[in-house]
Amino acid sequence: MKLKKALTALGAAAMLAGASGSASAAIQVENWVIDLGSLGGELAGFGKFGTNGELGIDQMEFSALYHAIIAGPLAVGTLQHIDTAGAVTTAVNGTGFVNSTTTGKFLNGNFELTFASTTTNVITDVDGITFDNKTRHLASGTGPDGLVSNGFLNIYADVCGAMLGNSDASLCANTSSASGGTGMQDGLLIATFEVLAASGDSGSFNVDALDGQDDAEFKLVFNLLGALQDSTGTALALGSTLAFTNGNTDADDDNNGAIDTLPSGWGSQGLGACGTTIFDNCGEEEGSLNLQQRVPEPGTLALLGTALAGLGFARRRVAK
Predict the structure, then answer these.
(1) What digits encode the pLDDT tens for the residues 105-137?
(2) What is the reported pLDDT for 299?
(3) Is 129 exposed, middle or buried (0-12, 13-18, 19+ CB in 10 A)?
(4) Helices (H) and strands (E) in the chain, counts
């Protein structure tokens, strides 16, 4: 009977450990790297990206183009669908910047990291005075597919410029199509993250200022050949590795008081025709990405420890 009680306690503790919310916390992943060389092909000679001395990556900064469509009236409950395509412009660690250009081509490497995502938000608040409207990210599959499957963020690595025998080493994906860019999704898919539904407001957009902000949380669901690694060279774990993005958006990058049909310096990147209303518009987004790792809460670990201790005691009593 005591063994049965101990097993019951252990099961309850395991259920608490697996539940969302207070059962787990997340800690910042620092000094992580991308082992490009292990991916072979054109990337075979690139080694590990992110190393600067003995340190890796703490944060990545990006520049992107987005296309946002509000699928209904400007009202609470209406869905907003967003496609985003961009490139990593800077990697940062404890010693400063890992060198890169503003167009996403990393210095002395002639390669780029690009991304594409499709997400769906729901409008949670409409302010008729300041026109500052709030949104919340929904789970994957709650809207239509776009550049990628709904609710997913894909990251690509690609060799560009002179490494491909091109006389212009600056030709990378986020140059406009008119000047030779080939798009954000022509590289090798190295990682995929799935968006997590937000528990509260995660974004906003201002109808008057034509700008806004967007925060999102994702979990890692694909890591090609374990290329995304922690500081020890261990592949970042699927499911428990989280990505947090923080972006600022601008639908009027030339500051003329009107929504741009397409921000300057960008090709269409497959985003389709851009509208010029708050219900259908394109714009620029500048932001950052950080990684975190889920870990059990101390209280949950203690609960599991207590249950395991009880199980061991019960087994000893049965043995006697």
Answers:
(1) 565 557 778 889 999 999 999 986 566 899 999
(2) 56
(3) exposed
(4) 2, 16
pLDDT confidence of 267, banded at 50, 70, 90?
Answer: low
Instruction: Tell me if 109 sits within 8 A of 91, measured CB to CB.
Output: no
Q: Which residues pair with 154 in a beta bridge?
A: 116, 192
Question: Looking at residues 80-100, what average pLDDT do you find?
Answer: 81
Smallest CA-to-CA distance from 32 within 266, 316, 226 is with 226
Query: Are the C-beta atoms of 253 and 23 separated by less than 8 Å?
Result: no
Residue 67 corresponds to which amino acid?
A: H
Is residue 309 within a helix (H) or strand (E), and if so which, with residue range?
helix 298-319
Q: How many Cα neighbours within 13 Å face the side chain of 288?
A: 10
- Tell me the backbone φ, ψ of residue 299, rounded to 5 degrees: -65, -35
DSSP H or E segment with residue 2: helix 2-18
Query: In whole angstroms, what is the distance from residue 155 CA to residue 200 CA?
Result: 26
Write the pLDDT tens digit of every residue in 191-244: 999 999 999 999 999 888 889 999 999 999 999 999 999 989 999 999 999 999
CA-angle at 70, arms to 66 and 73, nearest 5°: 160
Residues in the chain: 320
In this prediction, residue 260 has a pLDDT band, given cuts at 50, 70 and 90, of confident
Q: Please state the separation of Cα 47 from the chain's center in Å.
A: 23
pLDDT for 176 equals 37
Q: List, in sequence order, every residue forming a beta bridge with 290; answer none if it has no partner.
A: 244
> Residue 122 in contact with residue 195, Cβ under 8 Å?
no
70 DSSP assignment: E
Name the residue type at position 221.
Answer: V
Q: What is the CA radius of gyration of the chain?
A: 23
What is the band of 144 on the pLDDT scale with cuts at 50, 70, 90? very high
Phi first, then psi: what are they for 20, rounded to 5°?
-80, 165
**Of 43, 304, 315, 64, residue with least CA distance to 164:** 43
